[in-house]
Amino acid sequence: MTANLTDLTGTWTLDPTHTRLGFVTRHAMITKVRGAFNDFTGTVTVPAEGIEGAKAEVTINASSIDTRNADRDGHLKSNDFFDMENYPEITFTSTKIAPNGSGGVDVTGDLTIKGTTKSVTVPFEYEGSATDPFGNQRAGFEGTTTLNRTDFGLTWNAALETGGVLVSEKITLELEISAIKNA
């Protein structure tokens, strides 16, 4: 296993079968709902000069949202939330990748949801790299960040009789990345 970010030069492709682009939010102020986007592509290119020159791009098929409830997923796909008919993709393009002092990297970039682009920074822990049984060199990262969904035009909500709202504005992104080095 490699434990050093300097060994990651080259182009890496996200492995969708071992990567999770997940999120969690509060529902009815008393419980959490978790979900993920299951259809996406992404690459990270790290030049020989090092991780500071790296670039990352991810494109998510917004209709691949999965919260394990078909009715809720249908509502999220509607104009009330993601308006997937008009905005079928969510994109992320890095603007800066830098070591974060704890052995990982901070990835800052432009996240576009429902036609609105905002800068987001995700601190990632580097889990290491290894060659799998099929000869692929893999690298693993885990990152979490919080954003406000209303900043991206996802403003639908419903008031509760007991006070509060049905869906929290705060969304926590939970990203578990497995990337394979391109040959």
Automatic annotation (TrEMBL):
<comment type="similarity">
    <text>Belongs to the UPF0312 family.</text>
</comment>
<feature type="domain" description="Lipid/polyisoprenoid-binding YceI-like">
    <location>
        <begin position="11"/>
        <end position="180"/>
    </location>
</feature>
<dbReference type="Pfam" id="PF04264">
    <property type="entry name" value="YceI"/>
</dbReference>
<dbReference type="InterPro" id="IPR036761">
    <property type="entry name" value="TTHA0802/YceI-like_sf"/>
</dbReference>
<protein>
    <submittedName>
        <fullName>Polyisoprenoid-binding protein</fullName>
    </submittedName>
</protein>
<dbReference type="InterPro" id="IPR007372">
    <property type="entry name" value="Lipid/polyisoprenoid-bd_YceI"/>
</dbReference>
